[in-house]
Amino acid sequence: MKALLKSALFILTAFILVSCGGSRLESPNILFIMSDDHAYQAISAYSDDLIETPNIDRIAEEGMLFSNACVTNSICAPSRAVILTGKHSHLNGKIDNRFPFDTTNITFPQLFQEAGYQTAMFGKLHFGNNPKGVDVFKILPGQGNYINPDFITNDGKIKVEGYATDVITDFTLDWLKNQRDSDKPFLAFYLHKAPHRPWWPHWEKFDAWSKKTFPEPETLFDDYSNRGTAAKTAEMNLLYHMRYPHDSKIRPSTLEEMGDVQPHVPSYEWGFNGPYENRVNDAQRAYYEPVLDSINDWFKANWPSMTNEEKMRWKYQRYMQDYLATIASVDENVGRVLDYLDESGLSENTIVVYTSDQGFYLGEHGWFDKRFIYDESFKTPLLIRWPGEVEPGSVCGEMVQNLDFAQTFLDMAGIEAPSDMQGESLVPLLKGDLEAWEREAVYYHYYEYPAVHMVKRHYGIVTQEYKLVHFYYDVDEWELYDRKNDPLELNNVYDDPAYADIREELHQQLKEVRKYYKDSGELDQKFIDLYNQ
Questions:
Q1: Does 6 score more than 70 pLDDT?
Q2: What is the average pLDDT across 177-183?
Q3: Cα dihedral 331→75→477→422 (10° resolution)
């Protein structure tokens, strides 16, 4: 009888643990989906002016959309380092794309792995060939290629025929269906190269998207009046800095034949010879070449007689055609994964996150690329679906950052976060508990200068209402923007007497937040010295 009672008690205890989420089997799965340079303006859950993204939108419809999500340092590898470590760039050491990642950093996948999670990573990491804390990986070397891409895996380097967005999805689905242990929870990274430059759409989309026309941003012809030196000297202008063969699909042979193409933009030969000529197969070429012919024929016939305004407009349309076409493939493939989660029953216990490593300029202020603290670069999409916990269709306007992801995921899984992580768990916000959220401002610091695009070093503090920025190094300039009354950030009101009190208050907040996040500037100076050697 005693043995029978003991057995019954054991079964009852196990049932209670499972019911209350105490069993490891009941720990939530996490699917972290991140694209590269995916502007929030190019997700229809945020704005449907440019593109419809019904599959990505599903995550917002079934979960929460964050309207004020942002990054700490708007550039690829540093952003990813912040996400993995839960620490600002000045602490994790990855301040730019040049210097290596310090592999002594503890990353959150390691903590998941130690807690019994199975972990996998497919797609673009951007630094390191052996991601820590990841059981299975197939990652692109560096930026990787759209067409017939190479991958670094646990078993060495492979080349896969196909389009990168499809291939990364195939890897992810194959692991979910056939390789994972169904008795363990998982943390899976599904990381797209798209829509990173140079924008090569899927060969079957290239023709249709090259014929589309898109609305121009209000600030396409911004002259940067009432802004500082940094905006005026950045090399991100569509007309003067977007390279013809690299971005606009104008062949090097076309430029050579035409001679003096104005405005002159230094070319990247690998814009064709790397991602296209050296990788495309005959079947893929048969799709691409007729469209490339039509673009190049039009360019030769019309470009010399066009005004600069017309050229700017043409470059903007070519940019949007290719950039948005790559996103169309991302959306379709996200749909494939979401459908599988639904069909397999995994959706019920799988948290799905969609984000980008930063924002991107889609012609706003005449720009492409990122790097600035200005909104299109600084803000990033963030959509989170957590069945049973997040109210479907909810929206959160609080200031959240990629700095918060590590602690959020650890909190979701019931894993203790290291005390030196600097973010805040988003779980209270996801559950609608606004009173438990105390952050009023976020901190930003960009370092990579002098470098491509020549965006000056700067740091700043951002609240829902205001943005205070300090550009330093070879200038000493301050900017202040009223985010509510000047959402396009066209008017620097730093010297406006009407904002004097706000300016002083923000200066004090900035001083405090730099101290809180331990940004003394010491690491910055160290790397400035290395740049100058």
A1: no
A2: 97
A3: 100
User: Within 10 A of 77 (CB to CB), how many other CB atoms are there?
Assistant: 24
Question: By the 8 A CB rule, do 122 and 139 touch?
Answer: yes
Three-class DSSP category at 398: coil
pLDDT at 387: 97
Alpha-carbon gap, residue 455 to 309, rounded angstroms: 24
Helix (H, G, I), strand (E, B) or coil at 104: coil
Residue 260 has pLDDT above 70, yes or no: yes
- Whether the per-residue pLDDT at 174 is higher than 70: the answer is yes
Which residue matches tokens 């216990």?
349
The DSSP letter of residue 178 is: I
Report which residue type is found at 107: T
Predicted pLDDT of residue 267: 72
As a whole number of angstroms, the longest Cα–Cα distance in the chain is 98
Q: Which string of b and e fits 327-345 if b means at least 16 CB within 10 Å? A: bbbbbbbbbebbebbeeee
How much is the pLDDT for 26? 82
User: Hey, what domains does the chain have and what are their CATH numbers?
Assistant: 25-199+326-437 (3.40.720.10), 231-321 (no CATH), 446-532 (3.30.1120.10)
Across 28-54, b (16+ Cβ under 10 Å) vs e yields: bbbbbbbbbbbbbbbbbbbeeebbebe
Asked whether residue 380 carries a pLDDT value surpassing 90, the answer given is yes
**Selection from 326, 355, 324, 350 nearest residue 337 by Cα:** 350
pLDDT digit string, tens, across residues 235-244:
999 999 999 9
Which alpha helices (DSSP H) does 303-369 contain, by range? 308-344
The burial of 460, by beta-carbon neighbours within 10 Å (0-12 exposed, 13-18 middle, 19 or more buried), is given as buried
Which residue in 425, 410, 338 sits closest to 187, CA to CA? 410
What Rg, from alpha-carbon coordinates, does the chain have?
A: 24
pLDDT beyond 60 at 11: no
On the 0-12 / 13-18 / 19+ scale of CB atoms within 10 A, 474 is: exposed
At a CB cut-off of 8 Å and minimum separation 6, what does 100 contact?
94, 127
Of the candidates 193, 95, 164, 175, the one whose C-alpha atom is nearest the C-alpha of residue 136 is: 175
User: Per mean pLDDT, which range of 15-24, 246-255, 376-385, 486-495 is the poorest?
Assistant: 15-24
Rounded Cα–Cα distance for residues 155 and 133 (Å)? 16
User: Residue 146 and residue 195: Cα distance in Å, rounded?
Assistant: 10
Q: Which residue type, as a one-letter code, is found at position 65?
A: L
| 27 φ, ψ (degrees, to nearest 5) | -65, 140
Q: What distance in Å separates the CA atoms of residue 201 and residue 367, rounded to the nearest whole number?
A: 21
User: Which tens digits make up the pLDDT trace of 131-162?
Assistant: 999 999 999 999 999 999 999 999 999 999 99
Place of tokens 């916000």: 429
